[in-house]
Write a structure and sequence with these properties.
Length: about 130
């Protein structure tokens, strides 16, 4: 939980004893216990409300699939590009062949005809 190990929690407790003192420590420990209990009840209440609103579909949801720690941008981009290539292949067979003189080639030829030079390349630019 939050990367806290037993040693770290013990160190926090020792520091709290020195900072708060033995006379105020029980009061703050009781407040911490109440806070943790309220947070647990809040989380359980949210889960119960979600179960009530979603009905039987709540148990069918694969919560591990929705875990944000599973987010891998490289995989998502790879899948998006793969899907796009498959769509292009399907649309190429259905529609007419792509125009060999696309807008990019037309602009490039117009710049070459006008004698324009390409922008200089800066290898140190990010």
């Amino acid at each position: 939980m939050f990367g806290l190990t037993f040693e770290k929690i013990l160190l926090i407790g020792i520091v709290a004893v020195f900072l708060l003192g033995p006379e105020r420590l029980p009061h703050y420990a009781a407040q911490l216990a109440r806070l943790v209990k309220q947070l647990r009840n809040l989380a359980n209440g949210a889960k119960d409300r979600m179960r009530d609103e979603m009905g039987p579909e709540f148990d069918d949801v694969d919560w591990k699939k929705l875990d944000p720690r599973q987010y891998d941008p490289r995989r998502i981009i790879r899948e998006a590009l793969t899907d796009e290539d498959q769509l292009k292949a399907q649309s190429a067979t259905v529609s007419r062949a792509p125009n060999p003189d696309g807008a990019y080639l037309q602009q490039k030829r117009a710049r070459e005809a006008a004698g324009a030079q390409p922008a200089p390349f800066d290898s140190e630019a990010t």
